[in-house]
Amino acid sequence: MSETADTADTVETAVVVEAQKGQEEQAGAAQKPPARPVPEIRADIVEERAALGASFEALRADLDETVDAGKRRVAGAGRKAKVAAPAIGAALALALLLRGRARRRR
Fold it and tell me: Would you say 41 and 34 are in contact if contact means Cβ atoms under 8 Å apart?
């Protein structure tokens, strides 16, 4: 039981030491000045947001066009099916009728 407690204390101590190192690194990083001026960084962020927004809008427009084209295809296929279905049905009925007559003759 004491070995488990010793191991737990060792792990706990290691975690505390790692947390302190992380805090020290953050404090050191916070003291360093940025490589570029803050207004320049903010301007770049604004430009990138605008570019991403424009790209997103372009993708949305392309998607709308694609969906509209798909809807037109489906509508066209539906019209063709409405025209072709009676003709196909009549041809099938005629073929079955002729087949039945041919079997009766034998």
Answer: yes
